[in-house]
Amino acid sequence: MRDFDYIRPATIPDAIAAAAEPGSAYLAGGTNLLDLMKGGIASPERIVDISRLPELNRIERLDDGGVRIGALVRNADLAYDPEFAKSYPAVAEALLSGASAQLRNAATVGGNLLQRTRCSYFYDTASACNRREPGAGCDALEGENRLHAVLGWSDACIATHPSDFCVPLVALDAVVEIEGKKGRRHVTLEEFHRLPGETPQRENALEPGDLIVAVRLPAEAASFSANARYLKVRERTSYAFAVVSAAAALVVDGGKIRAARLALGGVAAKPWRARSAEAVLLGADANEATFASAADAALADASPSGDNAFKIELARRIVVRALISALSGTPKRLPALPASPFSNIPGVRHDA
Amino acid sequence: MTSLPITLTINGHRHELEVDPRVTLLDLLRERLDLTGTKKGCDRGQCGACTVLVDGKRINSCLALAVSHDGAQVLTIEGVAHGEELHPVQAAFIAHDGFQCGFCTPGQIMSTLGLIAEGQAGDDPERIREGLSGNICRCAAYGGIVEAVLEAQQQLAKADRRTAA
User: Fold this and answer.
1) Across the interface, do A101 and B115 touch by the CB < 8 Å criterion?
2) DSSP bridge partners of A263
């Protein structure tokens, strides 16, 4: 690990001023940054430790019915907050399906949004990677790429965004609260992460010094609490990133879908909001045929970026199954294996 | 970079230290303080061998900069037993063959202490397995580990009832 200056600012403005200098990186939980620094993928000259900044570790209920989650709230603290988990069960389920208990105790809300792809060519500094080194090329294109993107990819980069947490958040219209040199601004999570295009190194809407201070969910997000699930296929039962995942949330009345939210994980360089599928669901009968049409709409623009055509059909099936499980109702208690297809879901065929 | 002064309370003992900011909590424990019970497996947060409790919560000490935890209370495997008397979790790991080579065991035991304190798994073996999935055992002693956790919880609950009575 290269040498770096370590500073621990006492206030948000001090942190922003320090981090705006070239070569700076914020440190919060450190679970991704330290891994990147040990591997030589990130080598900041200055670490700005924000882990003790005041007021960023609170979960606040807003007067308008929404919730404001401080950027330093730990993943485990958020997932096990009883009121939060009751109102936003798919978010809690996604959090608990990610990483390990040790990592969830350290990893923060803001850091989860900013975690880097786990593409093995991004991690291997001997490989060409446009995301790590603009213009270097992409060894994933002709490499081991069965887990890479099937939506929104470009010839410059086929990596995926690894977050579980962000998938139900983007489905529920989360907003990122950012403080920077010019003050505070709000960016929707859907707009926060960028698709690679020709500039995969530009991963999100942050400018130098910008600090995520909170993530907000609007009041409407809680209206799905009775029918909201997260489903995640992994290559082992636990402690693995998604091959494909989906967050599904419904409001159903008299057999008709009155409101619907759907997002996919593991398929693109950003958490993928499936608005065309939501349009299919809205007003339709809540049944498997409707869900299959929605899945087709969600994957209509998908194409393999390598040996990963299977992910497109897998994603369709995960969408259908996530919607069926949402329709069958949020369980009173999360299953022993959160978001796992190995958990028994009433009304869902095991081969669905 | 010059060294920075920090204070850590480790297994009840206060330490005032000067540390290079690059030093992880894991390397500080092992290389500076000779607390080698905490193991370095992958050093990348993937195996759980380095698990310790920081302010009561289990974390991977390999992914924690020591300077960032200035002022923290740290519990390592060396601080778990009471003198010669094993902690019920340690005794249960022995009774149920919850290890073979033993390299992952300090991390497994510290993770178990965290799991029990969190109170989410109860006596459901599936929830215990899921709750300990951040601790890899290459000898695959998982069956014994889950039995050990179940028994340790029962012993601790009995001890609690005795204390209450």
Assistant:
1) yes
2) A247, A273
**Looking at the partner chain, which of B44, B68, B130 has a beta carbon nearest the beta carbon of A51?**
B68
CATH number, domain at A232? 3.30.390.50
Residue A163 and residue B36: Cα distance in Å, rounded? 34
Q: Is B24 on the interface with A (CB under 8 A)?
A: yes
Which of B38, B42, B58 to mutate against chain A (most A CBs within 10 Å)?
B58
Q: What is the pTM of this model?
A: 0.97
How does pLDDT run across A200-248, given as a tens digit for each residue?
A: 999 999 999 999 999 999 999 999 999 999 999 999 999 999 999 999 9
| Residue A27 counted as domain residue | yes
Bridge partner residues of B73 (DSSP): B9
ipTM score of complex: 0.97
- The answer to whether A79 and A103 have CB atoms below 8 angstroms apart is no
CATH 3.10.20.30 fits B4-79, yes or no: yes
Residue A175 identity (one-letter amino acid): V
Quote the strand ranges of chain B, DSSP E: 4-10, 13-19, 51-54, 57-60, 73-75
Residue A12 domain boundaries: 5-51
Q: Is residue A335 part of a domain?
A: no
Superfamily classification of domain B88-164 = [2Fe-2S]-binding domain (1.10.150.120)
**Chunked mean pLDDT (size 10), chain A, 352 residues:** 95 97 97 98 98 95 97 98 98 98 98 98 98 98 98 98 98 98 96 98 97 98 98 96 98 98 98 98 98 98 98 98 97 95 69 50
From chain A, the residues in CB contact with B43 under 8 A are 38
Domains in chain B: boundaries: 4-79, 88-164
A118 neighbors A241 (Cβ within 8 angstroms): yes
Distance (Å, rounded) from C-alpha A211 to C-alpha A110?
9
